[in-house]
Amino acid sequence: MIRFDDVDVTFGEHHAVRGLDLEIREGEFFTLLGPSGCGKTTALRSLAGFIQPSRGRIFIGDRDVTNVASEKRGVGMVFQNYALFPSMNVRENIAFGLAVRKTPKAEQRRLVDEVAERTGLASAQLDKNVAELSGGQQQRVAIARALVLTPKILLLDEPLSNLDAKLRVQLREQLKQLQHEVGVTTVYVTHDQEEALTLSDRIAVLDAGELQQVGTPEEIYDRSATSFVCRFIGESNRLTPTVLRRLRESAATSGAAFDLPLLAEDAESYVRPEKVSVTVDAPVSGAARGTLSVDGTVEGRTYHGSHSVYTVAVDDAKLRVSVPGTAAAKRWEPGTRVTLGMDPRWVLQYPGS
Ligand code: ATP
Predict the structure, then answer these.
(1) ipTM of the predicted structure?
(2) How many Å lie between the centroid of ligand 1 and the Cα of residue 152?
């Protein structure tokens, strides 16, 4: 449906996007994710036709749109600040593009009513001035204004970032639901990894203008392709050479298949906090068959309602371990000796930089 073919975007000397190759499927909710300045907005804007790539081609369907004007690409865009017209009421804002297209008035009315219902805007709100609406409602108006033109592609640039945390989570779910119902191919830009994981069918992670990985949320999180992705998404514990040596020793006794080149000096190894189990009074010989283990001492605990996070000292390293709510009731006090266990499948390893 959408293809970036070796796209470069430069601003003077600055390379904002480098050699971007990307394919986005029809109907997909696709997210461009990365830290501030990684080039995600630039990639989105070049798809929208606001920016011209300095190299490469962009395709929508079979059509090469690299030199096609924005309004002829069949894309609808929602901006972070909504960019609504303050002098118009909600209905006029939503109908704006229809009016430009000279759609008959009665048809405009019908289409606006339909899209308003779909996006969760009550009919009483349609006559209000946009300034009277809450941030969440303004965001709905911006989406309705884009959708009413039945774009082939919906582009969203951090549409939730101006909202408070609770509303953001609520709207996230509604947005996902809406996209599912409408079925429009959606490209979403965010720096918020949780938003990306919860909303997307697939995610592209960018760093410094370069694509790091494309995959489903599960692939990005559990099978991070680079150490950048591993560190950027969620939390991860870097395993020190000492911890790695101990884990390898435990593999010898438990029979775990641990054939990673673990002691390579410059390799980076990580494990996510919830992939580590905690037991007390484990046999000295290590954890269950097939797992890796290492002994440590509890240093502290923070309570998060659904789970607790323990900091466990293992020689020169401190590992953060996430334990679900029910097990948290055990409350291991500081000083408790524990055994940390992990399945070798969840140890992520990258060549050193
Ligand atoms: P943010 O979330 O902060 O917008 P981003 O990942 O979307 O970050 P971009 O906005 O795509 O990043 O910007 C990528 C790089 O290109 C940044 O270093 C930015 O300063 C630069 N840049 C973006 N637009 C322009 C422009 N019009 N002129 C010059 N430099 C630009």
Answers:
(1) 0.93
(2) 26
